[in-house]
Design a protein that fits this description.
The protein has 378 residues and is α/β, with parallel strands linked by helices. It folds into two domains: 19-237, Alpha-Beta Barrel (TIM Barrel), CATH 3.20.20.10; 252-373, Lyase, Ornithine Decarboxylase, Chain A, domain 1 (Beta Barrel), CATH 2.40.37.20. It has helices at residues 17-34, 48-57, 67-75, 92-100, 112-124, 149-160, 181-204, 217-222, 242-247, 279-282, 333-336, 350-354; strands at residues 12-16, 37-38, 62-64, 80-86, 104-109, 130-134, 164-169, 211-214, 231-232, 257-267, 272-275, 299-302, 307-316, 321-325, 342-346, 359-363, 369-373.
């Protein structure tokens, strides 16, 4: 029997295929206009079917956050893979095995100690790893500041140690904290300029730097020019979420991931409906809490995906979600949402919510539902 939105067990992760495809085409067209290669970050979905849709639209290569992702995507025919998390020495053997099987795997580092470990392991095993240096252009997380002496020191350890110094990359994760077009455009330029400056320093020192890789969903969509950049990486754009809605790069109507849930009870005197999607389904991510609008654990929609204004998942226990109306409690909540009512919840953070599920249910415009697998673990 073919599943429908009324027969699926809940909670279930739904992908609205029309929205997803529109999001993919929007980003790819943007990158084509700016004249750069687009390498999507598949950690958001960890799904072969989604990655194939991105590739079909024009993406070249993929970015992953775990070597398990690299192995799974390589087995599915994706060969050009960037592992964009700092390389720990104990993972080098796993990376080597992938390369020996024919995977064009690139790795990254942001420190001399790590670079020395990569070079030593590579020499011991007769392998010249392709390595990018991570650059910090916004103080958000890891990386070397473009002007630091450490940039050249790391580069020389790799280059003189027999590795292939592939280039530099950066991620302006602090763009998630912004919410105006002006601020986002300025951050996109800061990200571009910083990474290009790092590349120029390497080249002026006589070191190779073919790749200049930048990217986050907000900066990718808001960049006005990408002179000097060779590729862009972004991930959450494929689904979008409520954090991105608050940042200002999408609307609720663009969010392609939702959680199908069922009303299982009421606390009428409190104005609550109880649903079977708690934090085990939505995740504990409260990313909108510090933004201009707090959606609790998610925005409530009807079963067809239409936003029910004012209704949010205001609380969550492990397997119970609390649905309520913002501001004034809904005294008619039980009548409005009877037991058995099916609803969708838009997530705060698509990456975190997707990670709660072993599979997606992809919904076609005709209502058909197809099951797509999702990877877990490291």
């Amino acid at each position: 029997m073919t599943d429908t939105l009324q027969t699926l067990d809940t909670p279930a992760a739904l992908i609205e295929r029309t929205r997803m495809q529109r999001n993919i085409e929007r980003m790819q067209q943007r990158m084509n206009t700016l004249g750069v290669r687009f390498r999507p970050h598949v950690k958001t979905t960890k799904c072969i079917d989604v990655a194939k849709a991105q590739r079909d639209a024009g993406a070249r290569g993929i970015t992953v956050s775990t070597l398990k992702e690299a192995e799974q995507f390589f087995a599915a025919g994706f060969t050009d893979i960037l592992y964009a998390v700092g390389m720990a020495p104990h993972r080098l053997a796993q990376a080597l095995a992938l390369r020996r099987r024919g995977c064009a795997l690139s790795i990254i580092t942001d420190g001399v100690e790590s670079a020395r470990a990569i070079a030593a392991f590579g020499r011991e095993n007769g392998e010249a790893f392709d390595v990018l240096i991570e650059v910090d252009t916004d103080g958000h997380r890891s990386g070397i500041r473009p002007e630091e002496d450490a940039l050249l020191a790391v580069a020389r350890v790799l280059h003189e140690g027999g590795m292939r110094l592939a280039g530099v990359l950066t991620h302006a994760g602090s763009s998630y904290e912004l919410d105006t077009p002006e601020a986002l455009r300025a951050m996109a330029e800061q990200e571009r300029a910083g990474c290009v400056h790092a590349a120029q320093r390497l080249r002026e020192a006589g070191l190779p730097c073919a790749v200049v890789s930048v990217g986050s969903t907000p900066t990718a969509l808001m960049a006005q020019a990408l002179d000097g950049v060779t590729e862009v990486r972004a991930g959450v754009y494929v689904f979008f979420d409520l954090v991105m809605r608050n940042v200002g790069v999408c609307t609720e109507q663009d969010v392609a991931l939702s959680v199908l849930t069922t009303v299982i009870g009421h606390q009428a005197e409190k104005g609550w409906a109880i649903v079977d999607a708690g934090w085990m389904a939505m995740s504990r991510d409260r990313g909108t809490q510090k933004q201009k609008r707090d959606f609790g654990y998610g925005q409530v929609c009807d079963v067809d995906g239409a936003v029910l204004e004012g209704y949010v998942l205001s609380g969550a226990n492990q397997e119970h979600g609390i649905l309520s109306h913002e501001g004034t409690a809904d005294a008619d909540i039980a009548a409005r949402f009877p037991i058995g009512t099916r609803l969708r919840i838009l997530p705060n953070h698509a990456c975190a919510t997707g990670a709660q599920f072993e599979q997606y249910h992809a919904v076609s415009p005709d209502g058909g539902v197809e099951t797509w697998g999702r990877f877990h673990g490291w």
